[in-house]
């Protein structure tokens, strides 16, 4: 790292030009923080589309071309591809090129980093932007996606502090607020507040959609159902990878929640309305306190 | 019933002047469909507040006063009060006064109707407006709450068809779309698409709020969590009553959902990413198809 943390990126490589990678590119372009954006990915058609949309400037068909002269790489493909992608890029990665990722899980990505990028550990800084939308793909990307959102950086012990500062500065240029925590804490926290709710929403819609009277049920579902299930519109492959990568923490969270549901079921069966009301009241208060603080209107 | 279904109400009595009852009054006022609105309720302060806000024109401290000259009554208090309210109003209810309700459950309300208003069955038409918001109280009421929303009418065999037409016309004047179904079907359908999601959202927030690291967890929760838990901001007493009144159908739905979660858990434990992705994909498709049809942007 011989550049200022806030200096513009000369050649940015984005692997996986979807909502996350595409919005990162657009945010940096809009901040004047990047000169040229190169897209890499599985399907040439999506990359050409991203180029047509102006999200990237150049389509690279192989890692050698993409990484030639690159000073910054964002890995934004589904986390299930981390091993394959890192194995493919490793031989072409120049010493000193900064690499970060946008994966929603961190321990599995870090395992892949140690497995494939062990010669580059000083400059590979894992991160996770807390942002998303139910739409996916480069068409859904927009330059302000990260404005005011948290980006969690989970640095490796081997990271060069200057590279960590560089990665933080680049995310800050996207408008994000930087947070830092251990990969273990990260994966536990997001199992609880993100991965479990996604699993629950996917599960409810799948449950109802499989009923004989599914059409009738959906015809009476209203705005509460719409909001509760919004995250069931999320990308199936991305969420398969997240759930698989973080399945130990996720299963632990699910089990704790199953305990909560067993308690609620007991209150229903025993007709204990008073305890139910207390529980609802506590939940309401906690939820509203959080929402008012986090999303001031 | 000797009035045209679309004729204005002369004296409307609203029992429970909160979001639902208050918005009903405001909608009818704005449609020129009511001359005078009288509020009845448990706490005089809330009624006085509703009067100050212009939601009601008159505060009644007893049922005799309220019902004197009334031609239309909306019961919009939490369903747990149905028995007490109907017992109190019955002695003062004139023959021919139309009564409807806005309860989110129907079988329990209908039991209360048979128990207390058996002399008035021709003119007591149960209904349920499918509308709500996380805010409650008369301050949250607004005249367009019912615009484009479904109102489910579950007529009794004893109902006068002219009274059913009257109730439908009044809700239509609020901007609602009318649907009709049996109370049994109603309670099963709403256990699935409304009561269960509320229970799940309350449960998740309560679960997380009770953790030692609750503050850390909430500090990383984002917009997906916000939408998933919006309904956990709902009124605790109202939802206690709904869950208690409909607890048999709700427990059946919860059990079916627990089966779904057990299946998801098995997929996680066995690392069956392919099945998980298929399930997520089916859920996403069903959810997006429904949302695009129901909430066209």
UniProtKB/TrEMBL annotation, chains A, B:
<protein>
    <recommendedName>
        <fullName>prephenate dehydrogenase</fullName>
        <ecNumber>1.3.1.12</ecNumber>
    </recommendedName>
</protein>
<keyword id="KW-0827">Tyrosine biosynthesis</keyword>
<dbReference type="InterPro" id="IPR008927">
    <property type="entry name" value="6-PGluconate_DH-like_C_sf"/>
</dbReference>
<keyword id="KW-0520">NAD</keyword>
<dbReference type="GO" id="GO:0004665">
    <property type="term" value="F:prephenate dehydrogenase (NADP+) activity"/>
</dbReference>
<dbReference type="InterPro" id="IPR050812">
    <property type="entry name" value="Preph/Arog_dehydrog"/>
</dbReference>
<keyword id="KW-0028">Amino-acid biosynthesis</keyword>
<dbReference type="GO" id="GO:0008977">
    <property type="term" value="F:prephenate dehydrogenase (NAD+) activity"/>
</dbReference>
<dbReference type="GO" id="GO:0070403">
    <property type="term" value="F:NAD+ binding"/>
</dbReference>
<dbReference type="InterPro" id="IPR046825">
    <property type="entry name" value="PDH_C"/>
</dbReference>
<dbReference type="InterPro" id="IPR003099">
    <property type="entry name" value="Prephen_DH"/>
</dbReference>
<comment type="pathway">
    <text>Amino-acid biosynthesis; L-tyrosine biosynthesis; (4-hydroxyphenyl)pyruvate from prephenate (NAD(+) route): step 1/1.</text>
</comment>
<dbReference type="Pfam" id="PF20463">
    <property type="entry name" value="PDH_C"/>
</dbReference>
<feature type="domain" description="Prephenate/arogenate dehydrogenase">
    <location>
        <begin position="10"/>
        <end position="297"/>
    </location>
</feature>
<dbReference type="InterPro" id="IPR046826">
    <property type="entry name" value="PDH_N"/>
</dbReference>
<keyword id="KW-0057">Aromatic amino acid biosynthesis</keyword>
<comment type="similarity">
    <text>Belongs to the prephenate/arogenate dehydrogenase family.</text>
</comment>
<dbReference type="InterPro" id="IPR036291">
    <property type="entry name" value="NAD(P)-bd_dom_sf"/>
</dbReference>
<dbReference type="GO" id="GO:0006571">
    <property type="term" value="P:tyrosine biosynthetic process"/>
</dbReference>
<keyword id="KW-0560">Oxidoreductase</keyword>
<dbReference type="Pfam" id="PF02153">
    <property type="entry name" value="PDH_N"/>
</dbReference>
